Amino acid sequence: xxxxxxxxxxxxxxxxxxxxxxxxxxxITEYVxxxxxxxxxxxxxxxxxxxxxxxxxxxxxxxxxxxxxxATLFDLEGTIxxxxxxxxxxEKNSRSQVIRDAITANDGTPxxxxxxxxxxxDALAIADITDPENPVLIxxxxxxxxxxxxxxxxxxxxxxxEGDNTPVQKVTxxxxxxxxxxKDDYTGLAIADLAPASxxxxxxxxxxxxxxxxxxxxxxKSPLIAKGKYESTDSIYVEAIVTAVTSLPxxxxxxQQTGSDPxxxxxxxxxxxxxxxxxxxxxxxxxSKVYEDYGFTKLKTSNFDIIDAGTAVPEAxxxxxxxxxxxxxxxxDFQKTLERYEGMLVRLPADMDSNVDGEQTMRVSRTFSRxxxxxxxxxxxxxKRPNMQPxxxxxxxxxxxxxxxxxxxxxxxxxxxxxxxxNDGSIPYYPTFLDNPNVNYIRVNDSVVGIxxxxxxxxxxxxxTVTNEATVDTFKHATPRTDKxxxxxxxxxxxxxxxxxxxxxLNLFNSPVGGDENPTGQNRGALSQAEYDxxxxxxxxxxxxxxxxxxxxxxxxxxxxxxNGALKALVESINSDITDTxxxxxxxxxxxxxxxxxxxxxxxxxxxxxTGLLYRPSNVTLYSSGIIQxxxxxxxxxxxxxxxxxxxxxxYQRDTLAATFIVxxxxxxLNIAVNHFKSKGSTxxxxxxxxxxxxxxxxxxxxxxxxxxxxxLGTEFGKLKGDSVILGDLNAYGSEDPLLVxxxxxxxxxxxxxRNTYIGGDKDTLGTPQFNPEGTPFTVDKSFNYVNIVDKMDxxxxxxxxxxxxNDEIGSLDHMLVNASLEARVIDAGDWHINSTExxxxxxxxxxxxGPVISDAAYDAYNGGEATPFRSSDHDPAFMSLxxxxxxxxxxxxxxxxILNNTINLTYAVPNGIETKKGNILTVxxxxxxxxxxxxxxxxxxxxxxxxxxxxxxxxQTGDFTIKMQLLRVDGNKEVAVAGSDVSMDxxxxxxxxxxxxxxxxxxxxxxxxxxxxxGFLRRKTK
Length: 1023
What we know:
11% of the residues lie in helices and 31% in strands. The chain is built from 13 helices and 58 strands. Strand 28 (452-458) and strand 29 form a beta hairpin. The protein is elongated and about 125 Å long. The N and C termini lie far apart (76 Å).
């Protein structure tokens, strides 16, 4: 036995040619990829002379299956390995102490790597590192240029060759030349023995074969494994056809037989690192113990005998649900269905359950995108519907929500490719996908039909590793793309509609491309001019397609209302594509520093992002605007056992932008509050009060802080009278606590706010305690009875709505909550699924903030050509339509008519029961309330049976007027008044903020600051 010894010497001069020749004696002899930081690489000098490495030799790593390229893990210059001894490199992290101690115990000296060590799909090599990114390989362990998990969770020791010959350097990895040992077996490090040469395995007729059905049994665990154990006592022989060789999610091969028991699987996985694809279709025999690996039955061996090379892969079996697929309580159990097919080659059919009406398919629950748990791109499926976030339809923490959690897990299946997807946006099993992703797209809620693959198990879920090719017909769109939202705006006679939408703009920042700075100096958006242009174009396209009169914005850069602000840039971009200027938008501005001007100094709060409001002055007129200050939390800091602060106790929320509009041609006010509540991904005091972060009811972090915000919003916004809508990203699903505060708490759940919340104040001064001076949490004593109108309309239509997708669960974070008076006006409401259903690859950015960096070609394939609205954000827009009567008004409020291009639009709604005829005359008498001067206009009707008569009146000045309209009928030579046709009203004529010249500026209220009197909650916040 050769004992190992490591001598690390100082850097020396270039080594002579004679010593250099001994490099051929240096081999990689052991590789450890264990749990945590138990990672090591061993080199051995198999020659008779000592060897000192020159300056150009090192250990190289090809990271993440070539995705990260080659890099130097350790520079070997000056390192000496004496004859018959070794060099052991270990993970540099201090947590690798266990493996270091094992090396020391074997008289070795561990050497720390200078870079992060390898994972199970990283090839390692002794190499000439003159060019570190393009090393010349000398000896390799691992599969080069592949993402295959060839070395995950195992130890490999180099074998002697056949005839006990000494191995030689190889640049191609051959697993047959390595002995595979168990995970975290590092007992051989610093011992120079090579493993014995492999012995050819043979299988004879004398070996009694066990059927796969007998191995699998008809329950969750193999009957060949004793209770409480995870492997069988004895080895068994199996003879079957190889149906697949896979690298994801498991490395090995699959065997399948023809069976007769529908309750038992006919397939099984064999864990092996030496299987090659030429085995597929052949009949092999092998011997192994039976293992249970977290609920997955498997065999494990690297030795097998080819019995028949002339057999073929059996046809894939369609997954079908049986009446026996129930749990102990008698409830349907989809996991039991899948367990019957574990390890088999299966096909996803158009209907899994013929006993149920309709087609029961697998649905896309997360489209092709990054699976951060598995650290690869894949698709998540769910049985018969996408997985719904448990708190969308059920109160958080309730038995029903817990049942939804269990059902989601029960219905889940992961769709995998057989190798790690490269960062080029391609889908290996869908070869034509990148030809045109905008035609071949895959969306949440698609049915997946015809996919074939091996049913495996990984990370607690069943997974299907695809073996055939998908086409555009494989993914059947239950929620297809649409060019515009489906919004009904139809009204009855004598009424018209107004439309409202929300639009999350996914951190639209223009400060990095010449715009004004935000208060934090951060950039959460585009990283280049090209990205910004693409982002702006996609958002513009989405808002143009929404085509609503009012748009509430979330996640726009908080860099003021000046000419170089993100809000101004967005409005200009939208209006540049609208030919008719009367349909142009302006934004609502807040003079936050009270200097009488709107500019870059007017930010809303101090966050990098804020909310915004766009509106069409041709349809609504801004009456007042301001902010509602949201709570701040200033609680004691939380420290862990080591005294380290894990939560400062100081937390903030974005203030609410509120505005009151008057609907043009009416005197009806419409109050709107645009919100973006505290993120679920933040941390607040209540999340870590125990010393560690907890989220038992899946509301995410800061739910109590959001409850405080909901109470503040409901209280202050409720001070406005009349029709009101709360809209925006409340960062709360449909039945979570903040929504129960704002809508109804029908189960009487105890709703508690965060502690130590304050209204107002700044970084140096506390504001006013929100609830009590002591800062104790407040138990909410009422709800504000708003109606979640999108959810209600979806239920009327028999639909399930959502606006957001996280992991593989969908739900609504974006809401439109209306009060009772506004609910009576609602025509329609819904979500436009342009974002949550789409892959992140359709986003504007390619720099890897939402996943790996993709190639230019892939980016162009997804996003080339004209901008589309799809994945313009990660939240779907919500929208609704409202109905108004011409001339209706609140008590004491005049009908508002704006002047645009020296013209006002006035509509006469013909009273019910009056029949109009062509040639009738409508007289309009306008009297100034200031001068008492009167002007009478006459309009001749051009058609019969008109219920409304629209008029354009020119050359009228701003001011307050009374107006009287009356129909006349021509009777011979006389004009006779039509009985009951008189309509009188007070009107206020205002100058529209739109003029004959282009105007994309923001606006104060046309009714000036006096409109804020009595609305104390709408304070113009100072910085």
